[in-house]
Amino acid sequence: MxxxxxxxxxxxxxxxxxxxxxxxxxxxSQHGHGIxxxxxxxxxxxxKVETGSLYPxxxxxxxxxxxxxxxxxSEANQRAKYYALTAAGKAQLVREQDRWTQLVTAIGRIMQxxxxxx
Amino acid sequence: xxxxxxEIDDEIRGHIALAIKERVDRGEDPEAARRAAWAEFGYMxxxxxxxxxxxxxxxxxxxxxxxxxxRVGVRSLAGAKGLALAVVITLGLGIGAxxxxxxxxRGVLLTPLVNRDEDRLIYIRQGSATPGAExxxxxxxxxxxxxxxxxxxxxxxxxxxxxxxMIGIGExxxxxxxxxxxxxxxxxxxxxxLGRLLQPTDDGPGAAGAVVLTHRFWSTALASDPGVLGRTxxxxxxxxxxxxxxxxxxxxxxxxxxxxxxVTSPHHLDALMVTGRTHRMTELFGRLKPGVTVEQARAExxxxxxxxxxxxxxxxxxxxxxxVSVRTLRxxxxxxxxxxLLLLLATAGVVFIVACSNVANxxxxxxxxxxxxxxxxxxxxxxxGALRRTLLxxxxxxxxxxxxxxxxxxxxxxxFVARFAARYSVRALDVTMDASLLWIGVALxxxxxxxxxxxxxxxxxxxxxxxxxxxSGGLRITPGTNRRLRLFATAQVAFSFVLLVGAGMLxxxxxxxxxxxxxxxxxxxxxxxxxxxxxxxGPKTITFVDEAMRRIAALPGVSRVAAxxxxxxxxxxxxxxxxxxxxxxxxxxxxxQPLAVLRNVTPGYFATLGVPLVAGRDFTDxxxxxxxxxxxxxxxxxxxxxxxxxxxxxxxxxxDPVFGDAKRRIVGVAADLxxxxxxxxxxxxxxxxxxxxxxxxxLFVQAAGGDPYALVPAITRAIHEIAAEQPVERAATLEDxxxxxxxxxxxxxxxxxxxAGVALAIAIVGVAGVLAxxxxxxxxxxxxxxxxxSTPRDLLTRVLxxxxxxxxxxxxxxxxxxxxxxxxxxxxxxxxxLPGLVPVxxxxxxxxxxxxxxxxxxxxxxxxxxxxxxxxxx
Lengths: 118, 874
Hints:
heterodimer; A: 4 helices; globular
């Protein structure tokens, strides 16, 4: 079934949102709206993060010490909270990336034969 | 950093602003962009909540909810200040009294002593069933026999007391001193806080005099002065060195200021003390060997004692068998206080129950009044749990405040109860308030508040809410609620009845004590101690007493003077009882030799105290050492030995070896003056002329009028003119001496009557409240009754009958409850008696009168119901 960006989005695997957020922030600090937009554009509109997931995730990461937060003035000329990677966050990003690669390889090995039968 | 709610909102607003800007930048209409951005964002409160949950745990939220409930509770109670105040005061008193009494009970009965391995420390007592011989103490040969035969006790410690005139620490004065052997402190397991204690090297006639100060004496009279160590003091004629200060510990059997070694007391070294098997004056303690139980030691000691008795049958003759009892020291010390403390605890508990049931009534009545409010809240979607939580929060606020009041009250109450209990057990003096008190208070408050929150009925599910809502302005009372209200009122009456009967018993006992005829002049006679050392026995005493009486009699305001060896009710337990025989009297087969106490008095003693002579004559100045030996006996002694009244002129002699066997002629019979007890007991007394047994340091001065105490300075001066160093102490009227002895009974009666009064007041308020409530809820019913022909009088009697009904059921329940409590109490307290008819009838009538009075007000209101207005309600 063909998928269009509008009517179908991919549901994120449990835990991958944290990794995506960390990855998005590796080039510099960003506010929540910006992070959501970057994930959407970089995934060619396939991934759209709900605010109801994004903000709790940001706060969770901040609470664990992987992100630091600072208030600034946004492009809309209003107070916005800017998140940035901490040193611990960078280390976590590396760990998550490794695990992601392993996961993809493992799942790929299992899923390949099924794919072949279709 | 944990963000607060405003920061979360700010972050969300920032997000929306960016989303709008993005859309506007793409060319959308600003208003449409705003709406689309909000729609895209989702349900904002939910997002905010899920962010909050990252930082705030469920417990935090529960606590916040609880705080809100409490705030609501406080606010809603602020609208019912009278109720809140009544509940807080009632609970505060109940919690305070219970916590205070409980901490004293714990301190006196349960806490271990400071003595090392106190569970191995035992107290051994020798006694018989003969009245006055419950504690015969031991003689030195008896202690030697026991320690030679017993193996389960590793060491014995002995303790006897003697009075010394002590010079060298403070004013010269007479001190009550303990005399102990070198093993005593090791057996007791006590340590010094300064210097050393007495050791086996301090034993024997060759040792140097040594004394240890008790901690209380050292820290109060000597202000904890460490310089006292090594000081030499004079005890009567001997000298001794202060070698140490004892750690704070429970003094038993008596509180002394100093404890000395044997060599300081010549009496302890003479042959009578060392070899006299019946010369008993020593208390005995023991330390169990490790692993030995008290029961084993008791069995062994009793066997050894039996063997000793059969080896010396002549010294244990008589019908009442002499036996030994063995207890741990802790149990021994706690026993006298046990009954009274448990009584107080039970009383306070009953008052608490009455208070709680009254509080329950108040809350129940309030909850009926607010059934409308609860129904509205239920209709608006509040769950039953939420309603209960509101009620619980309210009762928590009430009970928490009550607990706070209670804990604040408990401090002074502990001091009060401890001082009271100290009359029964020295341990009470060391009771202090501690954290456990707080916990007891909090636990009681929690129990009460949970109970109270579950008393009101919640509006039932949908079905009945419509009814409650419709009549939310009026007042409906269901049969169930009414039953509960009555139940609590009845319970209050029943418990109050039990307390009133108890108070009545104690008051009756007190009244009978106070109306006892004692010495007729007790109010005007001053008793003064002028302690003379034992060495002054003989002519010295006679000269001194004669001179003192002559000088005092010459003082203005003095009407009579006499001297003796015992102040009635103060020198309790001295000079006897001893065995004696009399010419023409033989004890019934196998009966004990009669026992009597010995008193030495000057001529005029009976007239001064106001004790009438029933027959014969008073002593005269001619009854002196060289003359005929004479005695005066008490009336009970005379009639018991010689029922036909021929006591006068018969010979009497002591059979106790201390006095020799001189025959003395009975020249007079005096009315009974039992100076060992405030109870109106018969007295077995033999009076000697002081000139024939010249020993005694007690003066009796009758004031001619005015305040007897005003004479004290002049009397003291008069005596110091004879001997400057002579102590003059403890001047008090005989009335006051007797009153001091009766204080425990008076305080018992006072405390229990106070408790009963509180309970009665609560019960009256309870009954009145229930009736008033029932009347106000039945205005319509009364209106109907009036409309169909009842007279206001009928309504009045109807309500009165209701009140009396509650009281009758309450009293009947109270009688049953009283018997149940008495049966329960009898297993904890020895000698618990059931009340006579008078206290029961008295309590019942007090309650009945109180109930009628309480019912009168609501009954009159019922009678005054206005028919038309009553019918129009609802």
